[in-house]
């Protein structure tokens, strides 16, 4: 059973696994201890570096104008933006708690950006006529690939790097741009929460993919759902340059994509540290009491036996991605919703990798296109399309095992 990966979404707003270019950039061996200094540098890049993409978000899309005029914190939270509670000084915490700081004023959003408290969004705030004014805005990897634990309030809490932001409505945010046509806005508004199409700007096909996790990748050489690159750096370069609008170059002869932004390269030198940090992010363990242990033990036998899951979800990372890819005919998540062509057909490999399963409990919906809303739906899809003939009790036990990974 191949739970095919969720495509690497990253986005415009999104994103954020930022990516490296060519097949020459290689994944560090998992056995090599990470350099703590490099990991710490990568953490800063992941959270706060825009790679100069303000050129896109401010100069072209003019989103800073919209934010400072019309995006209050309540609106920002409603489209999935998150606030880092640990970046808030005590006075701001108190003001949010007692209501003296308004959540319906764009000025509060500007103040949060000045504090570097909006996860994945970097603002330049200047005093103009004695008023803090947002003059430029860009995005970072953390926009799509981080969330918060909601420990302060819904959408406000401690950062959880590597978690896919499945609340993020990247398309709706992009559609706020006054520089887009009504037709363009309609496409972006159609994506919905937790989805992004990282190839739409090249092939014009509207088929958004779910934003993938950026954790649990330490041993893998195929990072995206279609396995286009040999390491995280490949996708980091792709997203940072072609989707985020960062300054640098991405070239992929297999798809004909060739993009160079800016007179300078603000991407390449940062890729090793960024990758080191991403490789350090372990998949989250299931919460206590979130699955039935006895049923999970029975489900493991189904996984390795009648369910035939382990034929592809093999090894410690539950994937054969390092040794092979799979044709679209082998996956159960197609055809794509709304009659779109196979996502694999839009990629460099024209195939899919087997998704790793660690942390599976955390990031519904499933499959690269989000067509399975629950693990129950995943198992049911395989049971039907692969003619597994699993009984209801076997399927229930298998779901409990998947929850335990």
Q: In DSSP terms, counting alpha (H) and pi (I) runs of 4 or more, how many helices?
A: 15
User: What's the level 1 CATH class of the domain at 293-403?
Assistant: Mainly Alpha
Assigned CATH architecture of the domain at 293-403: Orthogonal Bundle
Give the SSE order as H and E letters.
HHHHEHHEEHEEEHHEHEHEEHHEEHH
Tell me the helix content: 25-40%
CATH topology of the domain at 293-403: Cytochrome Bc1 Complex, Chain D, domain 2
Strand runs, count: 12
Structural class: alpha+beta
Integer-rounded radius of gyration: 21 Å
Q: What does the largest sheet look like?
A: 2 strands, parallel
Query: What average pLDDT do the residues reach?
Result: 92
pLDDT < 50 stretches: 1-30
| Fraction in beta strands | 5-15%
Termini separation comes to: 15 Å
State the gist of this model.
The chain has 405 residues and is α+β, with helices and mostly antiparallel strands. It contains 15 helices and 12 strands. It has a domain of 111 residues: Cytochrome c-like domain (Cytochrome Bc1 Complex, Chain D, domain 2, Orthogonal Bundle).
